[in-house]
Amino acid sequence: MRRLYEVLAPPLYGRILLPQLGDPQTAQDVLAETFTRAIEELDRYQDRGGSIWSWLVTIARNRARDVYRAQVREGRHLASFEAMLAPIIGAEGDAGDTQLDRARLCEAVTRTLSRLNPRYRRALQLRFLEERERMECAAAMEVKLGTFDVLLLRALRAFRAEWLDSPDAENADR
Question: Got the DSSP string for 108-159?
Fold first, then answer.
């Protein structure tokens, strides 16, 4: 099983789970659950001309689908702030530049947030910078949970549009 894991885990993670889930940690968790379930179900596996790879993909996709549905129900399917920014700012530079890059990014994010509607800015700060739960954010903003979710989605869209229209987006590409 160790050898199967060594060979099949990387493509299962990279080609199936990460693209489907979008979050590296969640994809890692589902990968572990996939192999755990495969070990538990191994005695029931029947070779019907398929491959172990196909069997693992089926287990992984089913589990990923379950996790995604649970996240949607709980509202956690909204991307984290860093994940939302990743396609905008690109990959990080050399390790030596990481601190400087983070400082510049923090300043750029602060400038972009300052240009947003105050209500949008507050929603983003509560959820992503203070990392509060959605219910807590809704209570702090004195709105219902569904209203907060809509507000947060609009705030994310406004942030992205503002970011892309700012000189910070051009500088981040360098």
Answer: HHHHHHHTS-HHHHHHHIIIIIS---HHHHHHHHTS-HHHHHHHHHHHHHHH
- Residue 7's H or E segment, with its range, is helix 2-11
Nearest to 155 by CA among 125, 119, 120, 130: 120
Residue 163 has pLDDT above 70, yes or no: yes
Model confidence pLDDT, tens digit, residues 105-134: 778 888 888 999 999 999 998 988 888 888
pLDDT in tens, 83-92: 555 545 554 4
CATH of 2-74, one of 1.10.1740.10, 2.10.109.10, 3.30.70.120, 1.10.1240.10: 1.10.1740.10
Q: What span, in angstroms and rounded, lies between the C-alpha atoms of 25 and 67?
A: 12
Would you identify the CATH topology of the domain 81-172?
Arc Repressor Mutant, subunit A (1.10.10)
* Alpha-carbon separation of residue 135 from 75, 127, 169 (angstroms): 10, 10, 32
User: What is the band of 94 on the pLDDT scale with cuts at 50, 70, 90?
Assistant: very low
Q: Which among 173, 168, 174, 165 is positioned nearest to 111, based on CA atoms?
A: 168
pTM of this prediction?
0.45
